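Handout for the seminar on molecular recognition.
Each group receives one record of this type.
Step one: identify the two inputs.
Step two: read the structure output and locate the region that could contact shikimate-3-phosphate.
Step three: write two sentences on what you found, then compare them with the reference statements printed after the record.
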Amino acid sequence: MKRVILIGFMGCGKSTLGKKIARQLDVPFIDADKEIEKAHKLSIGEIFGKYGESGFREMETEYIKGLSCQGEFVLATGGGLPCFNKNMEFLNQLGTTFYLDRSAKELANRLKNAKTQRPLLAGLNDEELLDFIEVKLKERDDYYKLAKVILNREDQTANEIVNLVNLLHPSLHQRSQ
Ligand code: S3P
């Protein structure tokens, strides 16, 4: 069964790459944040405002638990999802996890113009943004590195990764069973 799960920090490109991989594997693409927004009829910002980060983390865990009974998919998780409530353990049982690794500097560049949609980054100037990413990335690294496959997004093009996932997927899945 083809279940590809992309994890990584905000701005690493999970959704863009996820859509390409899904097209290639011919399976549905799922964006966890979008599904949670739809289910609760609130934006991520509104969820943070109303229920706090801890409320959002509970929603993320509840959401991925529901994916056990679905068929094949490519899933892009929110950046923090693997780091709470033993979610990483669960994701590794659910499918084949791929960590999209990027440096703090590159993430900061990519996120400069996309801060407003992300409550954890709201109000940070460029310097604060880089500091925040460096600290958070260190905190989260141990979780991200539990992924079955670590992909260096600065060395590999999106097309190379898509081809790699496509080629590797059957054998990776056998190993993860
Ligand atoms: C978050 C990442 C976001 C979203 C929320 C919290 C995080 O998703 O889930 O704003 O804690 O890293 P993206 O990684 O898709 O930006």
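Reference statements: Residues 52 and 100 are 27 Å apart (CA to CA). Residues 10, 33, 44, 78-80, 118-120 surround shikimate-3-phosphate (CB under 6 Å).
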